[in-house]
Amino acid sequence: MTGRALLAPAALATLLALAATGAPALAHHVGAYVPKDNAVTTNFKQVKFSVQAEKFDVALRLFETGPLRAEMRAHAAALPSGLEDGTRAALATGDGPEVERRLMIFFAALSRDLALEADRQIARPDATAETRVATGRKFLEAIWRYYNLVDFAVATRDNTTSVAVRLAFDEAEAYVKPAATVGTAPADPAGLRKPLQRIAQVLSTLIELSSTPPRRNS
Amino acid sequence: MMEADSPTWRVPPRWVLLVAVLMIVLAEVGGGAMARFKVELTRWARDGMLARPSVHGLVGVRDVDERILDEALVKFDAGLRLFHMHAEGMGLVIIATSMVAATVIRRAAARRTIIALLTTGGAGYPVGYLAWSALIPSYGLERSKTIAEWLVWVPFGTATIVALWCLAGLVAWTMISRNRA
């Protein structure tokens, strides 16, 4: 077999491999985005896992130096009074359930504030329906990112509230999802307001009821 | 051994080699610059996005906006990385495929056309990633992707793929005719 005769099959195989792998390139792979935790949720998880491991000294240090406490201070006006001091005290005394309760209140308050702001922005008449739907979708992502962190704690204390928030969230999501098939209802920004208001209301009630420490039988 | 059966590879035209080498040089410079000026590039992109809140759908709430900005910055960085990777790879693909075309294809017109398509397509396609990255701060993720697709990826990518299939077909045809003879 001559050199050129050997060259041709090798070149053909290489070209076929290149052309075959080139075809999927029409999809223009541009990388996938995996949402990351922000500083507050990261710090929350650090504190939570330290508490679960009963390393309260570590949890206290992480809380005192981390962005979770800074965020509590920044939102102090919208939070039940003494939430930050109480969280710190519970960490210092090694009271795990009390730490969990206070962090649950904090994240419920963040989620409620986001739901209220979402409702306010979606009600703006100057924005187009597409813009309001996109805004609603982004707010729902942010609400869920915070609420999801404490849903288990909410459910163990008040299952009805947890179910109510989840149902309202599901309903809200249905209003911002693009119509999957012809004939299905299009995204509706006006309809989104009711479940958002319900989320805010249910979480407000939860914060109010949970802000009183539970009685302990002596 | 006859000249036609010589195992020697034929060198593609000089301008083709120049373009390929230039692509590889650009890829290396791009990769180096991406690492060296990472902070400056991120700051530039972030400032560009913050200057156009409506383009990126920013709502003025940090908890919502930080995720939007983060996604855009991740994609901005991915575009630069993909340019670096594709420019390096396509430089080598241009050299390899044009060398096959120069060696195997006998008809001058077909050879010139296929080499031109391979070179322009291969050199243009990676630039799409650079363009996409550069457009993200001004036009947002989806619109900048659409612009890069229709101005760069689709025309240059199609040129490369068409040229590769034509070259594969011609090589196969050469093999078949040789076996018949």
What does this structure look like?
The complex is a heterodimer of chains A (218) and B (181). Chain A is mainly alpha-helical. Chain A has one domain (39-210). Chain A is 73% helix and 0% strand. Chain A is built from 9 helices and no strands. In chain A, helix 2 packs antiparallel against helix 6 (96-122), helix 6 (96-122) runs antiparallel to helix 7 and helix 8 runs antiparallel to helix 9. The longest helix of chain A has 29 residues, at 129-157. Chain A is flat. The mean pLDDT of chain A is 86. Chain B has one domain (11-180). In chain B, helix 2 (38-50) crosses helix 4 (62-104) and helix 2 packs across helix 5. Chain B has helices at residues 14-36, 38-50, 53-56, 62-104, 108-139, 141-180. Chain B is mainly α. Helices cover 86% and strands 0% of the residues of chain B. The interface between A and B is large, with 40 and 50 residues.
What is the helix fraction of residues of chain A, given as a range?
A: over 70%
- In percent terms, what proportion of residues of chain B is strand? under 5%
The largest sheet of chain B is: none
So what's the overall shape of chain B?
A: elongated
Count of separate DSSP helical elements of chain B: 6
Q: In total, how many domains does the architecture of chain B comprise?
A: 1
Number of domains of chain A: 1
Write the H/E string of chain A, N to C.
Answer: HHHHHHHHH
List the quaternary state of the chains: heterodimer
By DSSP (H or I, 4+ residues per run), the number of helices of chain A equals 9
Taking pLDDT < 50 over at least 5 consecutive residues as the criterion, the unreliable ranges of chain B are none
Give Rg of chain B in angstroms.
21 Å
Which outline of chain A best applies?
A: flat
Report the strand count of chain B: 0
